[in-house]
Design goal:
By secondary structure, the protein is mainly α. The protein has a single domain, classed as Helix Hairpins (Orthogonal Bundle), CATH 1.10.287. The chain is about 65% helix and about 0% strand. The protein is elongated and about 60 Å long.
C-alpha cells in the first residue's frame, strides 16, 4: 500500500477495498461463532449462535446488495435497490431472536435444575 494523501485518496482506497473488508469481517464473525458453538459452556454456545446468525445475516445482505441509485420504494425513475435481501434479513433476524429466546429459556431451566453451565457436568442429558 502506498502513501495516502489527504485529498480523498483514503476514501478511494476504502471504496475499492470495501468488498474485501466485508468478506474479512463476515468470515471472522463466522469463525468466532463456530468456535463459541464448540465450547463446553452452554452460555458461550448460545452467544456463538447469535454471532453466527448475525454473520449469516450480514452475508445475505452483502451478497444481495448492489449500487441502486434510488430507494426501493421511491416513486422516482432510475435503478432501484433490491428490497428482497432486506426483507429476507429482517425475517431471519426475527426468527433468530425467537430461537435465541428459546435457547435462553432452556439454559435457564438447565441452570436451575443442574446448577451448572458446563455441558460435561450435566450427565442426565446423555442416554
Amino acid at each position: 500500500m502506498g502513501q495516502l494523501r489527504g485529498d480523498g485518496a483514503a476514501a478511494l482506497w476504502l471504496g475499492r477495498n470495501m468488498d474485501l473488508l466485508k468478506a474479512i469481517v463476515i468470515g471472522a464473525m463466522f469463525g468466532i461463532g463456530v468456535f463459541q458453538l464448540l465450547r463446553r459452556n452452554v452460555i458461550r454456545s448460545a452467544i456463538g449462535l447469535i454471532i453466527l446468525s448475525n454473520a449469516v445475516n450480514l452475508f445475505l445482505l452483502a451478497t444481495g446488495a448492489y449500487q441502486g441509485v434510488v430507494a426501493a420504494y421511491a416513486n422516482v425513475t432510475g435503478q432501484r435497490s433490491d428490497a428482497l435481501p432486506q426483507a429476507l434479513v429482517l425475517t431471519a433476524i426475527v426468527i433468530s431472536m425467537a430461537g435465541f429466546s428459546l435457547v435462553l429459556a432452556l439454559l435457564y431451566v438447565i441452570s436451575i435444575r443442574y446448577r451448572t453451565a458446563d455441558s460435561d457436568e450435566i450427565s442426565e442429558l446423555r442416554n
